[in-house]
Amino acid sequence: MELPPWVRPAPLKAGSVTHGKLSADQWRTFCCVHLVVTLGRVWGGDPSAQQFKLLTNFMDLVFAIETAGTLSLSEDDIKLYEFHMSRYLKGFKELYKEANIVPNHHLALHVPDFLRFLGPGPNQRTFGMERFNYVLQKTKTNKHPGKEQAKLTSCPTH
After folding, report:
1. CB of 19 closer than 8 Å to CB of 12
2. For the CA atoms of the chain, what is the radius of gyration?
3. Cα separation of 111 and 39, whole Å?
4. Rounded Cα distance, 31 and 100, in Å
5. Which of 30, 115, 126, 139, CA to CA, is 20 to 30 A from 50?
6. Assign residue 38 a region: left if phi > 0, alpha if psi is -120 to 50, beta otherwise?
7. Of all residues in the chain, what percent are helix, strand and coil, respectively (each to 5)?
8. Per residue in 101-136, pLDDT tens?
9. pLDDT for 146-155, tens place per residue?
């Protein structure tokens, strides 16, 4: 498959310990471009097969992510996000009975509130916010509550 010049190739060992952590942008490209094509080819044949149901569920997640990440949003777009995210979570519970619903699943249902209040997702994913997330991940707290705030306020984010 030939990729447009602005799309990076999939990491060779994505998800493995040897590869290390993927950035948010690498995860998005991997899941919303590469896995869509690969899983569509591998699982997209028989609509009655379990794998097709897994693919449909995954595509609901991708559609919600892509909708929330557009540069402009209307109320209809936000309702489309709500529809696909709700259907993804319902399908997730049906397809992965042994898996737990985690806080991020619940928080995903509140994304429409943020989209309505703060605007499109790219406005919320600025370099400064990404950099601050990086700083938070690298901050060693040594499990001493209360000392994190002092460290974070004195830490440069540029």
Report:
1. yes
2. 18
3. 26
4. 21
5. 30
6. alpha
7. 60, 0, 40
8. 899 999 999 999 989 988 887 666 666 666 777 777
9. 655 555 455 5
Measured torsion, CA atoms of residues 17, 94, 102, 106, in degrees rounded to the nearest 10 = 130
> What integer pLDDT is reported at residue 7 of this predicted model?
80
Task: Residue 123: count other Cβ atoms within 10 Å of its Cβ.
Answer: 12
Question: What span, in angstroms and rounded, lies between the C-alpha atoms of 136 and 55?
Answer: 34
Residue 16 belongs to what H/E stretch? none
**Cα distance between residue 103 and residue 81, in whole Å:** 18
- The count of residues in the chain is 158
Residue 105 CA to chain centroid, in angstroms? 11
Other C-beta atoms closer than 10 Å to the C-beta of 39 total 17
- Name the burial class of residue 127, with classes exposed (0-12), middle (13-18) and buried (19+) by CB atoms within 10 angstroms of its CB: exposed
Predicted model pTM: 0.72
Closest CA to 124 of 114, 138, 137: 114
Letter for the amino acid at 35? L
Which amino acid makes up residue 140?
A: K
